[in-house]
Amino acid sequence: MLAGIEAELAELKRRNLYRHLAPARGIDFTSNDYLALSRHPALRAAAKAALDAAPVGAGASRLLRGSLEAHAVLEEFAAGFFGAEKALFFGSGYLANLALFSTLLDRRDAVVFDDAIHASMKEGIHASNASRFRAQHNDPESFRDALRSARDKGARRLLIAVESVYSMDGDMAPLEELSRLALAHGATLVVDEAHATGIFGAGGRGCAEDLPQENLISVHTCGKALGVAGALVCACGPVIDYLVNRARPFIYSTAPPPVIAAMVLRALQLIGEEPWRRALLLQRARFAHEALCPDSAFRGTQIIPLILGDAGRAVAAAQALQARGFDARAVRPPTVPEGSSRLRISIHADHDENEISRLSAALRLALAA
Q: Which residue, 15, 117, 146, 233, shows the most beta carbons closer than 10 Å to its own?
């Protein structure tokens, strides 16, 4: 037993920060299956067809015989779908962000990042040895000041790292302003579209759909609204080619199973074939916001944070909702800042208004207890 582990676990329990694995039960108000595609019959059919046509697993990294037809077909379709020159498929969004920042940046470079970006982006940034400039959340002036500082210090390559929809607060980045700043400072804007892919943009291609492509890299997670797994990095050809040649998390990972690539391809097609899903999702999100937190402004997304402050209070509220048949989970530090523990309510296209109203009533009872 490594020294101190049991004592650290005991301290986590004392502070109501201990985690354990709990199975899915009740009506899902927690997962990121926003468009309810994970159970779509078309994805099941795509999986069955792929299993009949290709090996179950890729068997190797992409550079050592693991690059199969399903990967190439997906990447070609995704590049066209997202309006990029090329796309590269990774096993997860975490892996994609780790590869992206750790590969494109070194100690001669700099990155300006929103202080609320996902842990995977932060891990990639820290692995790069680049100079780091933290910008205040969704504050273009703070980004402008940081970009000037980075240029004054002689940065070679300069990246701006943001999410389009932030997963814990459900707010959206000012992407048009940030894109203009990137162009003005010769920077590349990296947008993690994890919680926007399939939902936002005129064609469900994400919030960065209409931004200039010449200085844009977008990351599209495939395990949330698309209902499957993996992630796609979309960029100009040289960036993708550089990742293939230099990104250690890509080079030294076994390729995702071809069945996953086939299902992601079908999910992207469904975004175009069934636009009613994202329209219905946002209708339900507005209804849920009015039912759950009518005294705050609707931020226009499917993520509704109910901030309770104390971690113990958030855990107790989640347990009370679970006892009433609603799968809501507490989100606590370090995922969110100290004093901002919350229930993160995730709305799906297949939630009906009755379910949302019942959740609201159960929440009032839980918080009154």
A: 233
Residues of the chain with CATH 3.40.640.10: 41-273
Domain at 41-273, CATH from 1.10.10.10, 3.30.420.40, 3.40.640.10, 3.30.200.20: 3.40.640.10
Which element (helix H / strand E) includes 330? strand 330-331
Range in 6-15, 88-97, 226-235, 284-293 with the lowest mean pLDDT: 6-15
How many Å apart are CA 245 and CA 57, to the nearest integer? Answer: 23
Respond yes or no: is residue 167 known to be catalytic: yes
Q: Which of 195, 220, 289, 351 does the annotation list as catalytic? A: 195
User: In this structure, what token pair is assigned to residue 63?
Assistant: 């550079």
List the catalytic residue out of 102, 120, 167, 346.
Answer: 167
A 10 A CB-CB count for 20 gives 4
Q: What percent of the chain has pLDDT over 90?
A: 91
pLDDT, tens digit, for every residue of 240-299? 999 999 999 999 999 999 999 999 999 999 999 999 999 999 999 999 999 999 988 899
* Mean model confidence pLDDT for the chain: 95
How do residues 176-208 score in pLDDT, each as one tens digit? 999 999 999 999 999 999 999 999 998 999 999
* pLDDT at 1 > cutoff 70: no
User: Which one of 3.90.1150.10, 3.40.640.10, 3.40.50.970, 1.10.10.10 gives the CATH number of domain 17-34+302-368?
Assistant: 3.90.1150.10
Domain with CATH 3.90.1150.10 in the chain: 17-34+302-368
CA distances for 322 relative to 325, 338, 353, 365, angstroms: 5, 24, 19, 12
Q: Which pTM was predicted?
A: 0.94
Of 86, 118, 220, 224, which residue is the catalytic one?
224
* Residue 224 is a catalytic residue: yes
Catalytic site residue 195? yes
Could you give the residue ranges of the DSSP H alpha helices within the chain?
5-14, 41-53, 69-82, 93-104, 119-126, 140-152, 175-184, 237-246, 248-251, 258-273, 276-292, 311-323, 353-368
